[in-house]
Amino acid sequence: AYAQKEGYRFFMEKEIYEQARVISETLMGRISADSIVLDELSPELLEGINTIKICACGTSYHSGLVASYLFERLAKVRANVEIASEFRYKEPLLTPDTLFVVISQSGETADTLEALKIAKAAGLKTLAICNVDNSSIVRLADATLLTRAGIEKGVASTKAFATQVATLWMVALHIGALKGTIDQQTLASEIHTLLRTPNALHVKDGLHEKIHRLSKRYLHGHGFFFIGRDIFYPLALEGALKLKEISYMHAEGYPAGEMKHGPIALADSGLFTIALMPQTLLYEKTKSNVEELSARDATILAISPKPFDLADDFIQTGDHAHPMSEFFEMMLITQLLALEVAVRLGNDVDMPRNLAKSVTVE
Ligand code: G6P
Question: Per the record's keyword annotation, is Nucleus included, yes or no (predicted)?
Fold first, then answer.
């Protein structure tokens, strides 16, 4: 079926609103009462693997970064991520105990495809996380997990990212359960949270309107820093990328604890800080990083379940008990923020200048 806007102003907007549904589809048939069922990950594929190397570009690289935290924390597998265009020419050292994972919405990104070829030529086992069946990357990889986001038309990726993260989370749980690094009780509670992911992605009444209203403050100024820690650091990178792609304003994602090593020199009231302050992961640490920026007069938009008195703007998130639920809700908010800023600036959100949906040449 050809994608239609169905009353939304932009495909990107429609795709943001579709996320709760496409996540359900991504989970469908892959979760039983007490285990993760990923038949694509055969025993042969995982045998002898103790390292995972992830390779991707753009937004898909950011979901890979999230996965690197999840693989180490949940599955206790050494994991690292590389940008495909860097990986290609660095003469990478590859050993057969490594599962090579490529992540791609389109399955056609030239750099990612070439990286996959290099890994295959080195004899590694390969897994693709991809949204397009029968794409070049899917055809080449030993195994594929399809992300089931449906057709994504907006050049700025939203729902594909959400489904990639959910899929990679399932992979981490699957491997952790197989290896016994996750006990049954923890697995049950992770599954419980996974199944509730669509709730975190549901656009609550008043949220979009609130973001529309507060977005007017963020049309001028000399730049944005999205900051977060742990998995909220790659989310900060992704939030900044969304904003850059469609608003053409300068935005950077940064690890909150690293601001003091340079970027804080930029802080003044024209520096907008989007602070990702989850309650379930390093709240106090992140808060003190944001306080340092506030003390230098930076304009702060805090996204958090906890009211933060130094914030110039505040978007309150739900009272979640799991970092991944907080992750998905904050992801949604940063997507809507980028959308609203770009719309106010009069930009073509679905066809941003200079960008292509899929980059099939080097
Ligand atoms: C392009 C798109 C991005 C995307 C990247 C990787 O730059 O504009 O949105 O994240 O390619 O694409 P892929 O299809 O490999 O995920």
Answer: no
How far, in Å, from the CA of 345 to the mean position of ligand 1? Answer: 23
CA separation, residue 241 to residues 78, 108, 238, 309 (Å): 27, 20, 5, 27
User: d(Cα 86, Cα 235) in Å, to the nearest integer?
Assistant: 21
Query: Looking at ligand 1, which atom is closest to the CA of residue 356?
Result: 8
Q: Looking at ligand 1, which atom is closest to the CA of residue 245?
A: 8
Q: What is the DSSP string of 269-324?
A: TTEEEEEE--SSSSHHHHHHHHHHHHHTT-EEEEEESS--TT-SEEEEPP--SSHH
Q: What is the pTM of this model?
A: 0.97
What ipTM does this complex have? 0.97
What are the backbone angles phi and psi of residue 278, rounded to the nearest 5°? Answer: -70, 155
Does the annotation mark 357 as catalytic?
yes
Residue of the nearest CA to atom 11 in ligand 1? 358
Give kind and range of the element (H or E) at residue 178.
Answer: helix 159-179
> In a mutational test of the pocket of ligand 1, which residue from 106, 113, 146, 362 has the highest number of ligand atoms less than 8 Å from its CB?
106
Q: What is the pLDDT of residues 91-122, one digit of tens each?
A: 999 999 999 999 999 999 999 999 999 999 99
Phi-psi region of 274 (alpha: psi -120 to 50; beta: other; left: phi over 0): beta
Lay out the sheet containing 251-255: strands in order across: 251-255, 223-228, 271-276, 299-304, 313-316
Residue pLDDT, tens place only, 323-334:
999 999 999 999
Binding-site residues, ligand 1, Cβ < 6 A? 57-60, 104-106, 109, 112, 155, 157, 355-359
